[in-house]
Amino acid sequence: MLETYQSVFFGLWLILTTIIIQAIILIRSHRKQKSYQVGVLDPTLGQESFLFRAYRVFWNSLENIIPFFGMALLAILSGYDSYALSLIVWIYALARIIHMLLYYLIATDKNPSIRTIFYLIGFFANLYLMIDLGIFLI
Question: What pTM value is reported for the model?
Answer without folding.
Answer: 0.91
